[in-house]
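Before the break, one more example. Copy the sequence into your notebook; we will annotate it together after we see the structure.
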Amino acid sequence: MPSFVTQITGFFSTALGWVTALAVPGVGLTAGWHALMRATAQDEMTMLHHSRGLRNTVIYGGISLLAGGIVSAILGQFH
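Here is what the structure looks like once it is written out:
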């Protein structure tokens, strides 16, 4: 395999590792913030807003982890 292909797959593998490593605590912190704000909401609209934000955070976090797994599997085929 040419060296530039090995370098490109290595770069994407490293970048994906960083994105995944940062996505997990980012999703956790964002979900915690929305849950706290939902629990302390004073009116119905604010509670609805944070409920929707909490749901979206969990969905997009799951999508990013799933996409990371798929890309890792695809990059693993090049080694």
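The chain is about 90% helix and 0% strand. The CA atoms of residues 32 and 71 lie 28 Å apart. Try to locate both features in your own notes.
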